[in-house]
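Re: weekly structure request thread

Next one in the queue (72 aa):
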Amino acid sequence: MIRVDLDVMMARRKMSLTELSQKVGITMANLSILKNGHAKAVRMSTLEAICRALKCQPGDILVFEEDGETAE
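Done, posted below.
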């Protein structure tokens, strides 16, 4: 399972969902779906824009967990 830690990185960068949405150019609704882990897929261009806006690497916001693992 892939866990999305977008909210953690946003908090570290002190960036709101609204601000990230504007910088990335996607709707708050779609960004919220991604942030809450309900997205089935993410475009590479969207991931790139998020990483650029948050000045991070994809691995900073996407975490692989084996089935049955608990979040740290």
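The CA atoms of residues 14 and 61 lie 15 Å apart. Strands lie at 2-4, 62-64.
Next request, please.
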